[in-house]
Amino acid sequence: MRNRDKFAHIPADKPLSPKMQLFVEAYFANDYNATEAARIAGYSGDNHNKMGHELLSKPHIQAAIQKRAQEKIREISLTEEYVIRKLVKTIEKAEQDNNLSAVLRGIELAAKNLGMLRDKVEHTGKDGEAIKYEDVANEAADFARSISRIATRGGKGENPLKLVPGSSGET
Prior knowledge:
By secondary structure, the chain is mostly helical. It has seven helices and no strands. Among the domains are: about 5-70, Arc Repressor Mutant, subunit A (Orthogonal Bundle), CATH 1.10.10; about 120-170, no CATH class.
C-alpha cells in the first residue's frame, strides 16, 4: 500500500502536533529536504529518509506546507512593497526639506532597485582581451605626433588643413 493511500483517511485540516509543526518549519529552512527536516524535528530512528517521505504523504502536513508556502510568498511581497513605499516617502520628505543629496541618493537606490543602473561596466580590448596600457599610450603618442606634424606644416602638405573664414589664420 502506498503512503498516499495509507494516509488518505486523515483530514487535511487536522491540527499538527508540535513535532509535525517543527518538521514543516525545518522543511522550509533546509531547502525542502524532508530527511533533514525529520532529523531536526526529532523523529527517532535510523531512517530519517523514510520518515520524511512518510510525513510528506500525510494530507494535513501537505496542507500545512501549502499554507506556509503561501505565507512566505505574502511576506516577500509585502517586504518589497514596503521598501519601495518607504523609499518614495523618504525621497518626498527630503525634497520638502530641500535636502538634495538625500533626494539624489534615494533616486539612485530606487533606480538600482528597478534595474536602471549598472554597478559595473567592463571594457575590453581586441577579441575580448584586457586593454593594455602600453597600447593606449602608444596610440595616444602616435596621435599627438600626427597633430604636431600637421601644426608644424601650417596646414600645408599632402593633406592641407583648410582655414575657416574668420579664424585666426585668415581675415
